[in-house]
Design brief:
The structure is a single chain. The protein is about 50% helix and about 15% strand. By secondary structure, it is an alpha/beta fold. The strands form 2 sheets. The chain has a 5-stranded parallel sheet, sandwiched between helices. The chain has a two-stranded antiparallel sheet with strand order 5-6. Helix 4 packs parallel to helix 5 and helix 6 crosses helix 7. Bound molecules: BIS(adenosine)-5'-pentaphosphate (AP5). The site of BIS(adenosine)-5'-pentaphosphate has 39 residues, from helix 1, helix 2, helix 3, helix 6 and strand 6.
Length: about 210
């Protein structure tokens, strides 16, 4: 399966991707996670993108496309992949399309996780992550167990202000991907407002 996940910040893409990789046995490739790992390791890329992520803005298309090109060339992505957070602009989608056409392995599905703006801020601001296991929690709907509660962290871009900024960028720069993939017959819409298990069922039904 070669697929991408699109949806607003906090829609639940990362939560669902972590569940689906086990089912489909393909790598979950999140550009956000790759940038955060580079920042943590203080690589040249990390130092370059740190302020951009903290501000909730987008990293440049050239840097992001180069990163994904390299990741997709790794052997574990040969049989399929689940891209999360990429593409995020029409130029990124065009670059991905050209890259996959060159390799003779076009995309098979684009899953749009639909969550209204009114739900987004609560999901984003309440998110916590365990830096050891990378598991995602929510202070209300899925609180971290007491034994790890002291080590969970909040992302610097998960404030109400940055959440609103990221949502604005989603509407202006990422949502044009919806007609882009609709025209190609690849788009599958899933309502993301339900408990995570129910959303997983909806996604599996949409993909099968
Ligand atoms: P990225 O990490 O991709 O952030 P995002 O797209 O904003 O998505 P999030 O990680 O915020 O949300 P999610 O949909 O994965 O939700 P989650 O499952 O965690 O990107 C971060 C930054 O990197 C960007 O701002 C940009 O700077 C840069 N970047 C990345 N890719 C780029 C690109 N291609 N080009 C340029 N720049 C790029 O869930 C959120 C919360 O909701 C959690 O607390 C979770 O527990 C809870 N939750 C999940 N599902 C449910 C549910 N069904 N019901 C109730 N709560 C739920």
């Amino acid at each position: 399966m070669r697929m991408i996940f699109i949806g607003p910040p906090g829609a639940g893409k990362g939560t669902q991707a972590a569940r689906l990789v086990e089912r489909f046995q393909i790598p979950h490739i999140s550009t956000g996670d790759m940038f955060r790992a580079a920042i943590k390791a203080e690589t040249p890329l990390g130092l370059r993108v740190k302020a951009i992520l903290a501000a909730g803005e987008l990293v440049g298309d050239d840097v992001t496309v180069g990163l994904v090109r390299e990741r997709l060339s790794q052997s574990d992505a040969a049989e399929g992949f689940m891209l999360d957070g990429f593409p995020r602009t029409v130029p990124q989608a065009e670059a991905l399309e050209a890259m996959l056409a060159e390799q003779g392995r076009p995309l098979q599905a684009v899953l749009l996780l639909e969550v209204p703006d009114s739900v987004i801020e609560r999901r984003v601001v309440g998110r916590r992550m365990d830096p050891e296991t990378k598991r995602i929690y929510h202070i209300d709907s899925n609180p971290p167990p007491p034994e790890i509660a002291g080590r969970v962290i909040q992302r610097p871009d998960d404030t109400p202000e940055k959440s609103a900024e990221r949502l604005g960028i989603y509407h202006s720069q990422t949502s044009p991907l919806i007609p882009f993939y609709e025209q190609r017959g690849l788009l599958r819409r899933v309502d993301g407002v339900a408990p995570p298990d129910e959303v997983t069922k909806r996604i599996v039904a949409a993909l099968e």
